[in-house]
Amino acid sequence: MSGTFLGMPSFPRAAREAVRDERLRRNLRHATHTIRDKRARAVAELDDWAELREAGKRIKDRTLRHLDTYLLELEERVTAAGGTVHWAEDAAEANRIVTGLVRATGEREVVKVKSMATQEIELNEALEEAGIRAYETDLAELIVQLGEDRPSHILVPAIHRNRTEIRDIFRAEMGRWGRPAPDGLTDEPAELAEAARLHLREKFLRARVGISGANFMVAETGTLVVVESEGNGRMCLTLPETLISVVGIEKVVPTWRDLEVFLQTLPRSSTAERMNPYTSTWTGTADGDGPDAFHLVLLDNGRTRALADETGRQALRCIRCSACLNVCPVYERAGGHAYGSVYPGPIGAVLTPQLRGTTSEIDASLPYASSLCGACYEVCPVAIDIPEVLVRLREEVAGRGGKGHRLEKAAMKAAGWVLDHPGALAAGERIAGAAGRLLPERLPGPGARQWTDHRDLPDLPAEPFRDWWRKNRP
Ligand code: SF4
User: Fold this and answer.
1) CA dihedral 50, 56, 57, 62 (to 10 degrees)
2) For residue 324, how far is its CA from the centre of ligand 1 (angstroms)?
3) The pLDDT of residue 1
4) pTM
5) What integer best gives the mean pLDDT of the chain?
6) How far is ligand 1, taken at its centre, from the CA of residue 251, in Å?
7) End position of a domain, from candidates 303, 320, 350
8) Mutate-to-test residue for ligand 1 from 32, 54, 382, highest number of ligand atoms within 8 A of CB
9) Residues with Cβ within 6 A of ligand 1?
10) What's the structural domain count of the chain?
11) Is 350 contained in some domain?
12) What is the DSSP letter of 6?
């Protein structure tokens, strides 16, 4: 069982703890800089990268505009191919459906792969409550599960661990979950991979139920697509008798032609590969080939609410490549856990508050987990303008005037009144100019003081611009 994000403190509080952890910062810096440099080289190889990026953006926007049509088409095709489609409005409904489906098979164990959506709904916890044990099979997710940890990166959920820590987790925990780590296991990557392979193979061969997510769903044929690097996905998708896929509704693309664009941009943006090592596709069921039963659980869980927001909906274009995390100066220092969600980094800061709303302390703090430097937008293969969405969400949070925003709201209200009354504005400018030297360098009050602790107040000119203009205009 991995740790849950429930009850996480706000981003600034969690980040304050994280930045004190020198080992975490060293691990993150090394990993993110390595991936980002490789990505930059892989992207630079393509002359038409800008066109691919624009095409990906347009395909996703068009699909989101007609999402209902494509989802119904997908349902029809999956059903015609022998699968069963379930619709889940929220996490509780999705968990109920999946738990019921596993129970109906009589099994008490499942293997899992590629399933951020199931982490989002905390499916493992729901299964455990129902007496069903879920085994993560992605190497990084296995490390997170064995360490009773939480994922901290979209693509490399155990990015905060170095190989010595992984060796220690394998030695201490593998035996509790199945085949123990080999005697004398070192922290050599090949040995760690072999230990994971032996441990997981046992699970693959025994499991009768597999649970997956999907990177894409192709509406025109009802095909699901999983893109991964280890081959564990293929084992999970083909060996069990029953396959249950839990997928967010925004993952649909209309045609294979559309998919072609993302199969070029995703590998280069995520792992800096020219082509993805294991791309598995499946359509319903087939006699004597793969699972006998296939269930697709289409998950909303806040996505239609995000879709209704004209600025915020662009976050649903995300193909989870993680490029924005690897260039983000805030993520690099704070790490993924501080975001209190399975979606960390810049995309998490805009996606989580839209999926969960901005009423909790942690969700209201996420839109501020950014310097608005724009590096995330520059690298995003589907051109999500994350800073634009962050500002939109900040407006929503500040507009409510909740904790930490009352002063800001009152100041904006007062500024609005002054700007509406030119006489008052001119008088205010003169008074401020005359009193300029007497003004303090730091503003009073906890909120305002925090602001001026790290920023200089600009010097006020002795003469307001309007007066200067009156005297000097030609
Ligand atoms: S927002 Fe863009 S860069 Fe970030 S994970 Fe999603 S697709 Fe990748």
Assistant:
1) 140
2) 5
3) 43
4) 0.88
5) 92
6) 13
7) 303
8) 382
9) 154, 269, 318-324, 347, 379-382, 384
10) 2
11) no
12) T
Q: What is the pLDDT of residue 467?
A: 85
Cα of 44 to ligand 1 centre, how many Å? 18
Residues 299 and 420 in one domain: no
Q: Which residue is it, tokens 């598995």? A: 280
467 contact partners, CB below 8 Å, separation of at least 6: 430
User: Ligand 1 center to residue 317 CA distance, Å?
Assistant: 8
**pLDDT of the residue at 455:** 75
Say which amino acid occupies 371: S
In a domain, 139, yes or no: yes
Residue 356 resides in a domain: no
* Domain span holding position 119: 11-303
Give nearest CA residue, ligand 1 atom 3: 380
Atom of ligand 1 at shortest range from CA of 376? 3
Could you identify the residue written with the tokens 């982490």? 119
Q: DSSP assignment of 91-157, as one string?
A: HHHHHHHHHHHHHHHT-SEEEEES-HHHHHTTHHHHHHHTT-EEEE-SHHHHHHHHTT----SSS-T
Strand partners, 246: 297
User: What's the gap in Å between 57 CA and the centre of ligand 1?
Assistant: 11
User: Over its length of 474 residues, how does the chain's per-residue pLDDT go in tens digits?
Assistant: 445 566 667 888 888 888 888 888 888 899 899 999 999 999 999 999 999 999 999 999 999 999 999 999 999 999 999 999 999 999 999 999 999 999 999 999 999 997 899 999 999 999 999 999 999 999 999 999 999 998 889 988 888 889 999 999 999 999 999 999 999 999 999 999 999 999 999 999 999 999 999 999 999 999 999 999 998 999 999 999 999 999 999 999 999 999 999 999 999 999 999 999 999 999 999 998 999 999 999 999 999 999 999 999 999 999 999 999 999 999 999 999 999 999 999 999 999 999 999 999 899 999 999 999 999 999 999 999 999 999 999 999 988 876 667 777 788 888 999 999 988 888 888 888 777 766 777 777 666 676 777 777 777 788 888 888 888 887
Q: Would you list the DSSP string of 280-338?
A: EEEES-BTTBS-SEEEEEEE-TTHHHHHT-TTGGGGGG-----HHHHH-HHHHHH-SGG
- Asked if 332 and 345 count as a contact pair (C-beta separation under 8 A), the reply is no
Asked whether residue 457 is domain-assigned, the answer is yes
Ligand 1 atom with the shortest distance to the CA of 322: 5
